[in-house]
Amino acid sequence: MKFLITAGPTREPIDPVRYVSNRSSGKMGCAIAQAALDARHEVVLISGPVDVDLPRGARLVNANTADEMFDAVHANARDCDVCVMCAAVTDYKPEKPAAQKLKKGTEALLLKLVPTRDILRSLGSMQDRQFLLVGFAAETENIEKNALTKLRGKNCDIIVANDANLAMDSDENEVTILFRDGETQKISRAAKKIVARQLIKIFANAREKCLTKKT
Ligand code: C5P
Which residues have a catalytic role annotated? Predict the structure, then answer.
């Protein structure tokens, strides 16, 4: 199967030297990409700026901003069997990044942020989507309830819910997988590499099931 996987954060420029971003390390997305390669799948990895070793054997596309990641995902999604949106795409970006470095002053500085485009939602709303669509939900409260709202709102097939406090920039994770039909499955706390291996099996099975239903 062919997997498209997004990983890491995005950075939204304030000026040429400053940006808005988040604490995502890219470890979960890269572990998923490595697990897919180990299971002999083809992988396109679209990665934000990360400091981890990227899996060898994947086709790598770098994306710095949410807009770059949006374009890279849409350029590659159609011929994939499974799209796993694991990146922590920055939700807001400065409306007008300054062309030159902002000068320090003594007054408060107001930064107007506008929403970025939601990549997962845009894939979920594609009319003729053939691929299995997987989203992630990093939450700090009401984890499963919020994840279910995302599953429905973004029209995914699967949402992987995790606790942002445990998952972000950590080597371990613990996840609950929510399926479209209401089924849930838990993977208990383990190294991200181990969790990723189980996730790949689950995604590949779910994709097989979709295909069987369609024929
Ligand atoms: O709504 P929230 O950002 O928490 O949803 C998380 C899921 O949505 C993740 O799968 C993430 O990759 C995806 N997402 C996206 N584009 C955005 C924001 C989030 O693809 N702009």
Answer: 22
Helix (H, G, I), strand (E, B) or coil at 136: strand
Task: Give tens-digit pLDDT for 108-160.
Answer: 999 999 999 999 999 999 999 999 999 999 999 999 999 999 999 999 999 99
**CATH numeric code, 2-214:** 3.40.50.10300
Return the domain boundaries, the chain. Answer: 2-214
Please report which helix (H) or strand (E) contains residue 18, including its range: strand 18-20
Between CA 13 and CA 67 the distance in angstroms is 12
Q: How many CA atoms lie within 13 A of 150 on its CB side?
A: 24
- In tens, the pLDDT along 14-64 reads 999 999 999 999 999 999 999 999 999 999 999 999 999 999 999 999 999
Q: Which residues have C-beta atoms less than 6 Å from ligand 1? A: 6, 66, 85, 87, 89, 91, 116, 118-120, 135-137, 150
